[in-house]
Design goal:
The protein is α/β, with parallel strands linked by helices and 479 residues long. The chain has two domains: 6-103 and 268-471, Aminopeptidase, CATH 3.40.630.10; 105-251, Aminopeptidase i, Domain 2, CATH 2.30.250.10. It is 27% helix and 23% strand. The protein has eleven helices and 22 strands. It has helices at residues 14-32, 36-49, 55-61, 185-188, 222-235, 270-284, 315-327, 332-341, 392-404, 426-430, 455-471; strands spanning 53-54, 70-75, 79-84, 94-100, 105-116, 119-127, 140-147, 153-158, 196-199, 245-251, 256-258, 264-267, 292-298, 343-347, 350-351, 373-376, 380-381, 409-411, 421-422, 435-440, 442-444, 451-454. A nine-stranded mixed β-sheet has the order 1-2-3-13-4-14-20-16-18, with helices on both faces. Strands 8-7-10-5-6-9 form a six-stranded antiparallel β-sheet, covered by helices on one side. A five-stranded mixed β-sheet has the order 11-12-22-21-15. Strand 5 (105-116) and strand 6 (119-127) form a beta hairpin. Helix 1 crosses helix 11 and helix 6 crosses helix 11 (455-471). The radius of gyration is 24 Å and the shape is globular. The two termini are 25 Å apart. The mean pLDDT is 93.
Amino acid sequence: MEHKNAWEKYPKGEKRDAVFAFAEAYRRFISDCKTERECVIDFYRKAKEAGFCDLGERIASKEPLKAGDKVIANNMGKGLALFVLGEKPIEEGMNILGAHIDSPRLDLKQVPLYEDTEMALLDTHYYGGVKKYQWVTLPLALHGVICRKDGSTVSVNIGERPKDPVFGISDLLIHLSSEQMEKKAAKVIEGEKLDVLIGSIPVEETEEGSDEKGEKKDVKERVKANILRILEEEYGVEEEDFLSAEIEVVPAGAARDYGLDRSMIMGYGHDDRVCAYPSFCAIAEAEKPEYTAVCLLVDKEEIGSVGASGMQSRFFENSVAEVMNLSGGYSELALRRAMKNSCMLSSDVSAAFDPNYPSVMEKRNSAYFGKGLVFNKYTGSRGKSGSNDANAEYVAQLRNMMDQNEVAFQTAELGKVDQGGGGTIAYILANYNMNVIDSGVAVLNMHAPWEIISKVDLYEAYRGYTVFLKEAKHESGIL
């Protein structure tokens, strides 16, 4: 039952070079795309270059779809659904890769800017499951959009370029931390203490301006006023524009090679962009599959897959209906059959075994670096609560498919029983009665500002996803 180290399949030379080249392209991707909006922009551009046409434009033109056609649907700039039409009718099922492109972070509140003791700060609300103490004393960047009342939008990306300033959250010095150090880890840093320091220079008297009567303004919060002046001069926005802004606070800096042998990557947002990226690459290369191939990239997984851009919305179902309509095979019954007959890899990360913390893992059922693509038959917590527990028949089909194509894979659970647990989007797609299993890449430091993955596991995920889209069969209700 032991799995060989996947690096042994890739000796020095062309084979290992291919692994490193794929990993380098991914490293650049997660360095540039730290929000769901940035991921969508990048993937959409690459999809168009790969020959995908916009589904909305195709609907408007009423041009029918046929086998081999590629279409992409954009969900509010926060999610995507990509289709490569197969030789068989969609009613007979689709092969679906589904991943999420949001990651744990800090979001600015709607009224974020304030001054305290002549320091300007931004108030935040953390997003997703985080250890709050991990986010202090780090260089942070601001990414997102500010939408003005006139409908125009300002893109924000501050902290990534070499000459950019960075931001941060302060922590109490060790000399005054006797009471803090006695608190439980969950309380060492409170959620309302995750405020980002952004300035300390007061506005100059000559810049304070005048009121409507022409009299000199009496500015009380002069540091805040100076920040607002900078925002107006550099971005053309005012304080009220924060009401309609989505600004995310993320770790500043590029992802880096990790380890003397450069076998790993340390970066922000591996969960779940390390699965989204190879999923996209797999479908971008798909050509006339037997069954329609789909790559679904969604938002809001880290907070329960809710909202219009989350997996629980009707976006995917509506997109399938539109594609079927353009293919000449739509009916409500046909749509239901298409969903039921489909099979899916819920592409999400798994917890890698950490030799520093062996007590929470059960070694025989853990994911390891270098062992390839991970299949989680179930996730959930305690007694598998909230999980999608994949059928044994489906697992057997996948095992055979991976073995036939020499894709290194392993199986795992998310830690020991009763130690915790987690969930993915798998159960939501399983509600359509389709076969679904979680499969992805093992991650160390999951949900921390800087996570770590193995390059060879990333490459095996790409290979496994490619095989799945190309070769998965739908027989007797299984695959």
